[in-house]
Amino acid sequence: MNNKNSVIKGNALFFVIIINYLILNIGLNIIVGIFNIQLTYIESILIAQIGYAFPAIVYAFSRKRPVRNHIRLRKINLLTILLLIIFAFAIMPLMTFINSLSLLIGHNTIGSTITGMLEQTNFVWCLLAIGVLPAVMEEFVYRGVIYNEQREGNMVKAILCSGLFFGLLHMNINQFSYAFVLGAIFAILTEATGTILSSMIVHATINSFSVSLSKIQPYLVERLNQIQQNAGQEVTPIKDTLSRADIIQLLPSYFISAVFSAAFSAFIVYLIVKYNKREKEVKQIIASTPEEKSRRKQVAFADVWFILAVTICVVIMLSREISHWI
Hints:
Shape: globular
Number of strands: 0
Low-confidence stretches: none
Oligomer: single chain
Radius of gyration: 21 Å
Number of helices: 13
Largest sheet: none
Distance between the termini: 49 Å
Helix content: over 70%
């Protein structure tokens, strides 16, 4: 298969996933309405994750080469795992800054989902449903199947598409903003280590931390209130959500944290690359031979499948935001 066909197949697969997303949502709404079924948060997430990933699973298993080779599922050493976990925490201030910027124009949807799930079920199930399952399924689809097709064309564009597709599937401006950046970073991590396990580990760590933070937040608020009462101070109510004015006020401090976060995260990636002896592979992302550059320039990413899929996602995202504004 030539490079152009690989990119086309990657774009076409994403389009199929988006159509499958629409069919699944419409079908579920019809079934729920007819039979008056009340799905729990975990049931909804399980159906969504497996349903959205189904086209990629079918495609991967229909390939002639083994699935583990197609998605680059290889062993990973203990020190690299440790560095990846450190990286996950190091990148969080940058994600907080990006998330805050997006909240100036978008709405937070994931926060209520996590809170609702914690109220419905126990903490361990929440970790598995939000922390682990999406990390495995989404990385399999985006950094596994789709990215490894598109990287045959142009690696820089493939990395950006990996982030773009990953962000668009969340179907809202807030999650799109940081998912786009994380998706591109996850793709770089797969090149830095040579295995998709690296992006799965970082993805799972970030998601699991969000769930854990949501779990302990009520206890932290209660403890802070007790400290204020014991000190004889007037108890200042702690807001569950930040207003637009609060976010703008916090942005300078978030920006400073984001700068240090980006620098330290880049250093961790450097260590990962050096330890795994992947300097040559990482350099190829931007520094290929003249012949390779000429060949890859001829591969267009924005084909009809790309345009259709992106257009559908953008329309859905904007319609959802408009519904919040009205």
